[in-house]
Amino acid sequence: MIESMVAAFSGLTAGINFLVTKGMPNVVMLIAGCALLYLGIKKEVEPLLLVPIGFGCLLVNIPLSEVMDKGGVLRFFYDVGIITEIFPLLIFVGIGAMTDFSPLLENPKILLFGAAGQFGIFLTLLLALGIGFPKLDAVCIGIIGACDGPTAIYVTTQYAPHLLGAVSVAAYSYMSLVPIIQPPIMRLLTSPEERTVHMEITKPTVSKTTLILFPIVVTMVTGMIAPKGLPLMGMVMLGNLMKESGVVERLTNASANEIANIVTLMLGLAIGGTMEGHAFLKAETLAVFGLGFLAICLDTAAGVLLGKFMNYISGGKINPLVGAAGISAYPMAARVVQVQGQKYDRKNFLLMHAMGANTGGQIGSVMAAALMLSVLSGMGLI
Amino acid sequence: MEIWVFGVTMTIVGMGGTFVTLGLIILAIEILKRVFPLDQRRKAESA
Lengths: 382, 47
Description:
The complex is a heterodimer. By secondary structure, chain A is an all-alpha fold. Chain A contains 20 helices and no strands. Chain A has one domain (26-63, 75-378). Helices cover 74% and strands 0% of the residues of chain A. In chain A, helix 5 (86-98) crosses helix 16 and helix 15 (230-245) packs antiparallel against helix 16. Chain A is globular, with a radius of gyration of 22 Å. The longest helix of chain B has 34 residues, at 2-35. Chain B has 2 helices and no strands. Chain B is mostly helical. Helix content of chain B is 87%, strand content 0%. Chain B has a domain at 14-38. Chain B has helices spanning 2-35, 40-46. The interface between A and B is large, with 43 and 33 residues.
């Protein structure tokens, strides 16, 4: 009887024994999980993602947890939605269904900001290679600079799954920190006169037919240039086509709400599940966070510098601050531009132009990832 | 060396390709806007 009680008691204390003897990485990650929950709940930093990621991190780091073992609940989400790449693609349908491309179509030239906003991806790729990361790992780290969570997850799942937790958390954290990261760079690179440039308010020129044909044309053009990225761009544009056509309202609403919400929950938990202490706490994780931060700073700088160039060649008609919205963090980056513009001139309304650049950044980030995948394929690396 | 060839190739083709593709999309938008202009009556209403 006593032996049986001792055996039963040891079963209950096995977790604590593990924590005391070899569980220090788990303790650190339990604290990290709580920090993510604090950021999500108290500071409202990307709560839709950080709350499930933080909780998934807690679940997987509780000693002797089996949630990521074969048959475990988080392993199931991971296998079903992340390994298969279905989750990021379903989220892309929702993003397309929520995005209004009309500010971009009114002033198509600002789409170029969406290209400049991807510069950080490539410079960070070079830096990651310089530090010694293998080629595919470096590509996935660079992708943080896309400021686009689903794209980062899609690429990392395929080519550096061991970095998935770090890359995803870095991508979503930095996206939410855009209002803190961008303004100092914007101020550093622009003069007070440039910040007060007023941009012409464009009159509506886009027909319903153009809005409907736009996603179809973009899918065909980008798919022919970079077919490896077709699932990414195709899903965004499918969502947008459903929205603009107006004939499948139920599907549009489901994509933008129910499907996106359910997938976000499962995606967040599964990413949290990859943050097991012994696998996550490595020097390379810190390097991923550092390089990801640098990538977003470089994106912003490149966008503002292109803005200065366009300001020069347009004879002072473009406010360089709008260039900072050429990243994919939608609509945060556009709001940052509006706030910064009004800080120096309360009558300056840059929001619509910034929204156009920001939606251009969404297309640019997906296109940059698609091109990278196609180049890797062409080189025979994937 | 091979690493740097890879990195520089990715940067040039990736960044250049992004600019060129988005340039093509700008062109496509301009064509769409000309072929399917906003209805004049709606234009007047929204103005």
